[in-house]
Amino acid sequence: MPNLTLTPLASLRYSTHHIPSHSLIPNTSPHSHPLLIYHSVYPPTTSPSAIEAHLPKNGVSPQWRYTMYSTTHYHSTTHEVLCVFKGRAKLLFGGESNPSKLETQVSAGDAIIVPAGVGHRLLEDYDSGFQMVGSYPKGCKWDMCYGNAGEEAKADAVKDVKWFEKDPLYGDDGPALWKHDEAGKSEL
């Protein structure tokens, strides 16, 4: 099985995004964990098999290879780790009508940690082949929520989802374990 070659942590470019609740999508408001994007964290030619072999070492279970749904949805029971291995796409986080939404481009080599409650969807697949490995912390089962009436109890449950014990990619250190303030600054 091929090894996953990660960008050295000291050289990693990453971004943090706090997205407030909007309508019935909780986003990052119920907890203190931002959406994290690790830019070019591994080479864009990395195979999905290498990603799938690496993640379980850090307490994350790969469960699928696919694109992202084009309907805004969130998970109330688990955080999600998305590792792009093919193509590039524009993604939307936070919900279409949210004034604080994030529209961003990702490409092969990027990884995204989507905290429970953060609405997300595919806006545009630039290369008609955008693919990711989707993973969740071991023992967690994902659900599908859409910010509809009747999902209030699920939205409320987001605040109780336990955070990662290890950074999904780097293990005992890494952005998922660092404190991030609302302005996006990180503290070790």
UniProtKB/TrEMBL annotation:
Coiled coil: none
Residue span, Cupin type-2 domain: 70-122
CDD domains on file: cupin_YjlB-like (cd02219)
Transmembrane segments: none
Stretch forming the signal peptide: none
Protein name: RmlC-like cupin domain-containing protein
